[in-house]
Design goal:
Blueprint lengths: L3 E7 L4 E6 L5 E8 L2 H14 L5 E3 L12 E6 L5 E6 L5 E5 L5 H14 L4 E9 L2
Parallel strand pairs: 1-8, 4-5
Antiparallel strand pairs: 1-2, 2-3, 3-7, 5-6, 6-7
Length: 130
Amino acid sequence: MTIKAEINETKSGQHMVLLKAANHEIIMWSEEYTTLASAERALNRLREIAFCAPVYDLTDPYCGIPAGNRFEIDRTSHGQFMGRFRASNREIMVWSESYVRKQGAEHAVSLVRNGIKDAAYTPRNLRRAV
């Protein structure tokens, strides 16, 4: 399945990478970057490294402590599940909403992992409530 990447301007004037499914729903999003160029660099870096990154299920007690670029499935503080991409410098680049079922987080990770390399990119300057 294809995904679409957008960089939107937030109400605070910062820029955020949004990764959307074909149905236009946001799958994952980034932190806020002060400049459009910084957000574009983050998106380009994600395209370079995320498509081949392994997926670790941190809810599995036998998973161990992973290293390097990776997707992670983890529990939130409310006991739900989320997906995220963590770069080798240990910074989280994008993360998903929380899901009641682990399969929701796994699906979000799968969509991004399988679609990020060829994701269409549209720069936008929308004012969004984030």
